[in-house]
Design brief:
Helix content is 52%, strand content 9%. By secondary structure, the chain is α+β, with helices and mostly antiparallel strands.
């Protein structure tokens, strides 16, 4: 019953987002996405999608957001592993109990640097929103909030995460952890990769849905790492 409550809540969350008109819980068709984003006359031509995303376009549809997010794996700058030193630097500043003007400036600097490497870094988008709210920068805040919404909805619309047959799909392992608060969860401390199914699951802390773990499909990550002879994911 509690898992059913979670699924109903998730559907309602995505459905209430702007222009969320497509079928729920639809796994990405990577081959079709690749074809669409490379066609210059297509609505889903990748440069056009990225332009709309960077502008925080509120008219961007759910399907456009899915092509944008999952189509990123076909871009030269796609890197599924987190190796940037800015991750630790941002985490160190955010761990403080209060922030000075210098801290806010550093948060913005580190967040922007991370977003240059991964424009869908939810942790960086959240940190950037923190600074923009403190600055009362309403217009920029709305733009970044819309970018975050596009990423969250692209992931949330791919499954319910309740089993390895209906996982959420992500293009980076870090996105698994960063989407958890949006889903109403916190990380429980353990994760396991089911390599044969290209699925990873995270255990969860206590939550009102009574869910113990959430499953994620990480096929692009495994494929990318495997093509380079293995390594850290």
């Amino acid at each position: 019953m509690q898992k059913l409550l979670f699924i109903c809540t998730l559907i309602a969350t995505v459905a209430l987002s702007a222009h969320a008109q497509d079928e729920f819980f639809s796994a990405p068709d990577y081959a079709q996405i690749e074809r669409n984003i490379k066609e210059s006359t297509s609505t889903y031509y990748y440069p056009k999608l990225m332009e709309k995303y960077m502008a925080g376009d509120e008219k961007m549809t759910l399907e456009e957001g899915r092509h944008l997010y999952f189509g990123f794996i076909y871009q030269p700058q796609y890197m599924p592993t987190d190796t940037s030193a800015y991750n630790n630097q941002l985490a160190q500043v955010l761990s403080k109990k209060s922030f000075s003007p210098t801290d806010y400036a550093n948060i913005l600097e580190y967040s922007n640097a991370l977003l240059l490497e991964d424009p869908f870094n939810l942790r960086a988008l959240n940190a950037k929103l923190l600074v923009l709210a403190q600055q009362n920068n309403t217009e920029e805040y709305k733009k970044v909030a819309q970018q975050r919404r596009i990423v969250q909805n692209a992931i949330a619309g791919t499954g319910d995460g309740m089993s390895d047959k209906t996982p959420f799909y992500v293009i980076k392992v870090a996105h698994e952890y960063d989407i958890l608060p949006f889903l109403g969860y916190n990380f429980g401390g353990n994760d396991k990769i089911l390599s044969s199914k290209k699925v990873n699951y995270l255990t969860l802390g206590d939550n009102r849905f009574g869910v113990e773990r959430v499953y994620f499909n990480i096929a692009p990550v495994i494929d990318h790492v495997s093509s380079r002879g293995g390594g850290k994911m």
